[in-house]
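To close the section, here is one more complete example, presented without commentary so you can practise reading it yourself. The ligand is zinc ion.
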Amino acid sequence: MLTRHLLPDEFDLLLDGESGFGVQQLQGHLRDCPQCREELAMMRRFVLAIEELPELAPSRPMADLVMARVNVFVPWHVAARDWALSWLPERPALRIAAGVAATGVAGASTVALGWGWTHRERFLAQGWLAQDQLRAAALDAIGTGAQAVLGPLATQVPGGTLPLAGAALLGLGLAIGTSVAGLRAVAARTRAIGG
Ligand SMILES: [Zn+2]
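Output:
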């Protein structure tokens, strides 16, 4: 016999219709205790009332209003991808066109960078970067950056072509990324039409 009234989780067991030795003991207490009996009946009415409530989905503006006030942490790479995607056109054909255009731009800038690099002595001799120290620092920074991008590969590439290779890799990465986005859009569209 229980020498006390039922606890909240014991009421839960009874409401869930559980059975077993522990529950039999609880039911034994219910038979002798009008107070717990009344409390259980009240809880049962409450549960039934909740179940009869209509299921409402929040309206779309409501969800937007709430989310506008929620500070969502977005990692920088996700933010960068969303920003890049927001510039992509909706239609797959336009996306491919954008990919081709980006590939062209990336290729052109790679060529321009390469040309600039191979002709750097001319610029430098003409005082494009006037001070020797400034010039040395700039070249050093470019070389170090390319080395960081290329990693182990850097040791196998002659020093003069390092920045060129870095720029080419960057351009290639941009072009591949844009093309993949376009192709995925087309694939999704094809699946939607097929299914
Ligand atoms: Zn009781």
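Once you have examined the tokens, check your reading against these statements. The mean pLDDT is 80. The CA atoms of residues 134 and 140 lie 10 Å apart.
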